[in-house]
What does this fold into?
Amino acid sequence: MCCSTVRFAGLGAGLAWGTFQESTKRLLFGTPDSQEKQSVVSPFLSEKNAERLALALCRMRGAALKLGQMLSIQDESVIPPPILAALDIVRQGADVMPRSQLNQVLDAELGPDWSSKLISFDYEPMAAASIGQVHQAVAKNGLHVAVKIQYPGVADSIESDIDNVKLLLDYTNLIPEKLFLDKAMKVAKEELSRECDYELEASNQKRFRDLLSNMEGFYVPMVRDDISSKRVLTTELVPGIPIDKVACLTQETRNYVGKKLLELTLMELFVFRFMQAGSFFPHSYLFLLFVLIALLTDPNWSNFLYDDTKKTINLIDFGAARDYPKRFVDDYMQMVVACADSDREAVIDMSRRLGFITGMESDVMLEAHVQAAFVVGLPFAKPDGYDFRSTNITQSISNIGATMLRHRLTPPPDEAYSLHRKLSGAFLACIKLGAVVPCRELLLRVYQSYQFGEGGGEIFSRAPNSW
It folds into this structure.
């Protein structure tokens, strides 16, 4: 039996014991008073069990920790506060590799003489996340670099870890049935497999560096191929503060950064059709049309580092980047415009073509779906700057979400999982910054030069209102 399976078995036993203890306590002393909390209904959802779950996932690393991070970004309408509070521990990252284990990985991946390629290497990690940890170093040419080192066995355990966590989620009933967990797990396996391939990530990063080379306000650090492998990735170390820290800067700066982030998102989808998909930290139940089931992303605002001296956003972490088919992007462009124009029939038509609905939904579901689309389209509806400081988008969609979770008939298409993380992340970043952003102007600029059809010559089938 593998180590991962043993740990899950131990976790299951611990949770069962915790549930028995909580049930016994309630039998003797009664149930707590708060009637609307799920933790009151189920003795499994106790604070002790929440701590067991979170700490076990931190020790497991890899896919198990990634799924723990997924759960940690739900809201209280889905997962009770005790579970949320304990799972917040998971967001702080995995246990750090011991120095001996770190050296073994570096020796195996880069050869026993790896240190000869560096002037210095800091054994204290800058960050420790679900798949690996990052260290500062200085290359022989004096370039300061970031060395990302993957935890041993992570790639090999993806399949079993996700299957085991699925069993755990099925047992605990933490995830609503209409979130279509099987589909989410399938996409999770595919995404995590890509993220574990650092050679693929290096290729993605080089591609983005080329695509953004002439785009003002962005910088993608260089990759050092001579100090990289399938499990080690070395790139130029770039300065800057995480996006959430930009919220402390001037309103002018916050507006600028918010505009650049949304501009980048639109360019990636509608111009490059290649997106740095796993970069933002979304809330899974916001934006339930554009952001439906935005699961399994790296909850780390630090993937975008703002350098105020150069007015530049430095981009890092390209493991989950992916291409999007031209036909899908064509339909999605029409969907965005329909949302912005509050065009009900077009929203339903494009939603059916894209696979968000089947056409057999109840009137209640269709109405919730359309209203969610209109809410998400609000920033693109205003001709002037949209003020994210006073937005009620998140609350509006949260209110609609409960209806959609009861009446949905189908999961979203595979492309939507990564795409909606990025779109929701762009909005959430603007909300975090309190930015005022000319969203419609940015969309119009991309739309006016967009060519529909595989040959690029097809005319848009409907004219956007007042454009």
